[in-house]
Amino acid sequence: MRNTGNVLPVNEVASSLGVSRGTVGYWLRTGKVKSYRVGRNYMVPVEDLQIFLQSKGRSLPAELVSKDLGPRFRSPLQCWEFWQASGEGSNCQDCIVRKNTIQDCFIAKICRTGNCERSCRECRYYDEVYLPRIQFIHQIDEPAAVWKDFCFWGGNAGFAQLCEVGVKDLIGMGLEEVIHPDSLKTGIAFGKRMMLGDPQAPRLFSVFLKGSSGRRTKARISHFVLNQPPAATLMIACPI
N or C terminus: which one in the chain shows less Cβ crowding within 10 Å? Predict the structure, then answer.
């Protein structure tokens, strides 16, 4: 498939996905996939097509998961660097996150080791540095979240509803807070295989999710390793 400027003509989208031009046209007409017109042709941004396919739990052609696709993000500042640069880092010197050089500061939330005076829910550092990297999940219809190293970076409203928490409460939640104990072993095992890049790791499996009330919800989970953020995983949950 030829990819020029990260956009594709309709016929190449149809050919790559093994569907008719009419099917792709339907996606465009109904707004499921964005497009724009160039002369007589409609061009489809690869990133928007990728998000749509992931939201449907479909396998992605190799061309759509190329490391050359997708937005580029500069290397993020560590939280203490961010606050010191803004003149608000006077309390960072003794923070356990800085002392241990924890890459993603909000994982200290699940370790109960952080002593930051700021709440992740209202943190300007998170909003400016992390939120832009996962903003795409709010374009996905199904419950979706991004996690890395068994810690959630965030999720959309549908995923938060399954967990019976607010959207911002998902920030820094551990996998064990989202997956019910009956399924936790399965979730961790699949997570490890995904993190290690096991090509035989299933992309689809079923688990029980845990609501804050203790309620179990059985869901079919689809996993997709993301290029951005590096080593992070997109999780899409479809209740069954």
Answer: C
Q: Where does the chain hold its CATH 3.30.450.20 domain(s)?
A: 129-239
Residue owning tokens 């399924």: 183
pLDDT at 164 over 90: yes
* pLDDT greater at residue 38 or residue 73: 38
For position 72, what pLDDT does the model report? Answer: 43
At the topology level, CATH places domain 129-239 in Beta-Lactamase (3.30.450)
